[in-house]
């Protein structure tokens, strides 16, 4: 069948006005609300937010793997110009694991405990390239070597429980790379790892981008990881994007009170622990968001004008904050 | 892996010993007298005393047990109070009948439980799941003797296509043997499939919700590959471990089913032993069933371990 194309503008991933809702007994609950997000070729883009902000659900929509009960209300998702939504399952399956690969959070749980690692790493090739298991296993050894796993030849025949946490995550990355995808979706891939191993994995991801030109969507709640790895970042709060821009700008000049709150709640080398300011309150449940700006009930700067839908305020070229007071706050800072 | 099997083997002996002690106590504590059963209600007190002295029943339980154990270790399970037949050879002769019935019933139960349980999990909360789960509940609620009677009524009396009972050794006439075994093993297997089906559904559901199944989907694997390559083996490991217990429960049914279909197995021996207070028979038959169940559990556990590389292959 013919696939609806949009003029290819060099964007690997282009999400426009995407809304996703869960069908519950109480009715429909919007968990992703009108988000637009794009990733250029070879770009590493971070999506940062607390648990429940909708970042993972949005990434699952790209893979066509929304959980049961969730559905896309509106919006478009294009991968290098090819529309991904409203496609038959077979089409989405052909994209998954071939042109888009997922690197999940907990590598041990994400690996099949009863299958040799080499076979799991080579499996996408057997599925999408139709090559034999013997060839796939040989390719898997090369892939494991390319993610700097020691003794890849022996390791390929081992099972996941024989690997350390860092090795398991390397194996997952090798699996993701097997088909040389255009886009890697990394869903908190370093959260379960030790700090030193975490740094190695981040280095590895950066190398992959530099050598293959792979675009990476990096989902995390860790500002430090975003600062070291990403080119641009989207800050999500309660299902919506509240601020977006180049990483240096977001860090040096946070223009949404929520982003500023996140930064203030993150320990720094030259700060004191008592200087940490947690954001008061909790992220609202999707069916209990305040009217207008959804951060307004936790925001120290909120006023009557925040009961309106917040406008997109361009702080600088490419740096947008969805806050009616964005420029005022910037002046204050 | 080998060490695990040896550990299980080493546990075999104390388990068997404990089972024999418990059986011995229970059998002797239950009201009723062996002498009265053997001699009839009109027996004189003298006759009863003579019978008890003759069979050593007048001695303390501990002495009786030690003597029984000493003989049992040499393969002598005593003689029946009722007909003076040696218990051990009788059991050996009947063992194949019971084993065939139990194994056939267990196979039937698994053949029903595995695919239906997997389908129910795969179609979780859809029509197929609801129907299969309802079926499992109904099967689990049916007493096997009732089902056996119904089967005889339907397939032996109303439509006489299958025999209502009897036994021919397999090696004497295989066809006849299988035909005679259909109704007994079906009535036993159908009821046993209920628990196994629910176990399979639960383990499969757990596996299907696991992160590695999501990984398989994210690789673009079609549903059939996800199920066959990634889900099945992982679901079978817990299924076998838990399912082995059902093989033990099955023997509760064997006793009744053998009686209904007049199968000369160990189960019917247990029944006769209970009715007649024939302690040597009852004790011997129960112990052999214990050995069979323990062995079956060990075999199944070994299979489950072989399926799981976390047992067969060491750590990092």
Provide an overview of this structure.
The complex is a heterodimer of chains A (333) and B (316). Chain A is α/β, with parallel strands linked by helices and 333 residues long. Chain A folds into two domains: 11-96 and 182-332, Rossmann fold (3-Layer(aba) Sandwich); 108-181. Chain A has helices at 55-63, 89-95, 107-110, 117-128, 133-146, 152-155, 165-177, 195-212, 223-229, 247-252, 257-264, 326-332; strands at residues 11-24, 27-40, 44-48, 70-79, 82-83, 100-103, 183-187, 215-220, 232-237, 240-246, 313-316, 319-321. Chain A is globular and about 65 Å long. Chain B is mainly α and 316 residues long. Chain B has a domain at 94-312: MetI-like fold. In chain B, 78% of the residues lie in helices and 0% in strands. Chain B has helices spanning 2-29, 34-39, 45-54, 61-73, 87-122, 127-141, 144-158, 174-208, 211-218, 223-260, 266-275, 279-307, 309-312. In chain B, helix 7 packs across helix 8. Classes of the chains: A alpha/beta (333), B mainly alpha (316). At the A-B interface, helix 2, helix 4 and helix 7 of A face helix 9 and helix 10 of B.
CATH superfamily of the largest domain in chain A: P-loop containing nucleotide triphosphate hydrolases
- Integer-rounded radius of gyration of chain B: 24 Å
The sequence of SSEs of chain A as H and E is EEEHEEHEHHHHHEHEHEEHHEEH
Strand content of chain B: under 5%
- CATH architectural category of the domain at 94-312 in chain B: Orthogonal Bundle
The name CATH uses for the topology of the domain at 94-312 in chain B is MetI-like fold
Q: Can you tell me the overall shape of chain A?
A: globular
The side-by-side strand order for the widest beta sheet of chain A comes to 6-7-8-3-9-10-12-11
Write down the Rg of chain A.
21 Å
Q: Kindly give the count of domains of chain A.
A: 2
What's the number of helices of chain A? 12
